Amino acid sequence: MPDPSRLRDGVTVPVDNMEETCDWCGFVYDLGPSDRSASAIADGASQMADLIVGATDAAARRVDDTWSPLEYACHLRDVLLVQRERVLLARREDAPLIVPMGRDERADHDGYAAQDRADVAVQLTQAGKLLANVLGRLGPSDWDRTVQYNYPEPAERSLRWLAVHTHHEVTHHLLDVTSQLDP
Ligand SMILES: [Zn+2]
To answer: 113 alpha carbon to ligand 1 midpoint, in Å?
Structure first.
């Protein structure tokens, strides 16, 4: 385990809490096989893309304050692109402080709700492949490089954790979408 004394000012949680489980989708953070996250991320992104293409009502919100399937797909696309940049940043800088992606502001600024679902499906699939490619190029020691992450709480996280966390994002938002599309 990494030495918690490496934590910096304002970072309150040890590197890589290995016992996290999501109450909503049941995802368990298992950092052992994190190098397998790349293919799981690409597969999940492709799976969501197929769902969006097949759903003629993907742009409609079922509940006013909950994103539509299309909006979730746009969000996941952007998560994958942002995570890719963070992995690349962590390879050239030591423990960089990452900038929040602006989850909610981005949905407005980028106009998620008005985007073409066929375009989004292509972009989402490609975003999964782009991140998977970068993860697939990490060597054994690269997985231990870190970023100062800000979600769900400030913590120094390894790329091993970042990959598993992104796999969780994919799994979680797939459930967000399928729970809306299923009859
Ligand atoms: Zn989840």
So the answer is: 23
